Amino acid sequence: MRVLGVALLIALAAAAPIEAQPAPPPRAAVSPLIAQRAHDLIALINGGGDATALFAPSFLAQVPESKVREIAAQLVAQLGKATGVGAFTPISPFASTLQTRFETGEATLNLTVMSEPPGQITGLWITNVQSAALARLTTLASVADAIRALPGETGFIAATINHPDAPLASANPDHPLAIGSTFKLVILAELVRAINAGERHWDDEIVLDGTERPAGAFMHTPAGTPVALRTLAEDMIKVSDNSATDVLIHTLGRERIEAMQTQVGLRQAAANRPFLTTMEAFKLKGVGQGALGRRYLATDEPGRRALLAGEVAAVPASAIGALFADGQPVMIDRLEWFASPADLVRVMMWLYRQRTTPGGAEALRILAINPGPATALVSQFGYIGYKGGSEPGVLSMTLLLRDKRGAATVISASWNNSQAPVDELRFSSLIRHTAELIIAPAP
Q1: Is residue 20 over pLDDT 60?
Q2: Could you report the per-residue pLDDT of 65-80, keeping only the tens digit for each?
Q3: Residue 130 in contact with residue 400, Cβ under 8 Å?
Q4: Domain chopping of the chain, boundaries
Q5: With the CA atoms of 354, 358, 359 and 362 taken in that order, what torsion angle do they form, in degrees rounded to the nearest 10?
Q6: What torsion, rounded to 10 degrees, do the Cα atoms 337, 340, 346, 349 define?
């Protein structure tokens, strides 16, 4: 899940909103301001710099300095120290793509700055991380081995739509793991089913009822406001909006979503009953420093449903406290949404099979808005759909790829570490590299 709904603007794919970047003008010049900010970024990546001076307050409100420093450390751990900017591709006087050099690789930084003084950074996307170690992984099997070797628990699978039971490569593919916001694929599938059955329509409007919602675009939207199902689904997928997600769960019905798990191929469906809203998950993990969650885990399914309907519903969101403030995992092995990579491949395959239906065609469009770790590869594929999830100790990424000849493949991988945070950048790079090997396999 996105941690308390924070929109991560550094594009690490798991939870980050990634919008298509406009093509650069043919003769755009690099502005001195962009060049200076690029120089400042190099210093910050290498552990120095002044983040509060470099980034706009609006940026740091969504991505705090601690997170910026964490990502910078991940870059250096994977690529070595940043050594400079190799090439600029201007988009406007206030935006540019930077090819950034490191001791053992390179990365693409997409940078946007304020148009007025002091010209602080308002947007930063990190894509296409290329390391020497990654380049040595020349087969899908070697990527599977690299994922298997990560600390904690991992699972990985790459399989074609036509031969799902004969994967191209895998590592612990049937092992159930916490998946964070990737659970939202099941909600999307239930919406597709309902639309195809004539029970719902994409343009149906839901009138918000004033129920307390988690962070997101609809957190403070007043009661009585109409919102289209299409809008809720788009926000749930493209930016992993938790407020949109919870509105959809309440609208579609918890029990229907639970039943949909089996239909789309989740073999660990019982682990996700009751099917939690994001607000419920945050309350269970955060209220009383997890005491409410421990009581929830100690009872049976009917008891859990009663607790959700009673005490959990009644306790205010303000009681959650500083959940995840220290960046450490919280009960991810017991209190989460669970699925294996093979499960998630089956979910994506179910959605792909609906592509000629009114529900399925629009769902695939929505899944393609944010290509996640494969953003840099969009031009090489005919289609890329994506959903990921993250919280401290949890990463999950699932890609639906169709090449320009029409052959479709699904990649799904998850990484859990209940003892420490996981390296988002390294994992994202491994998943992107898997897609690269699928589109251009090693000779």
Answers
A1: no
A2: 988 998 999 899 889 9
A3: no
A4: 3-133, 137-275+337-443
A5: 100
A6: 80
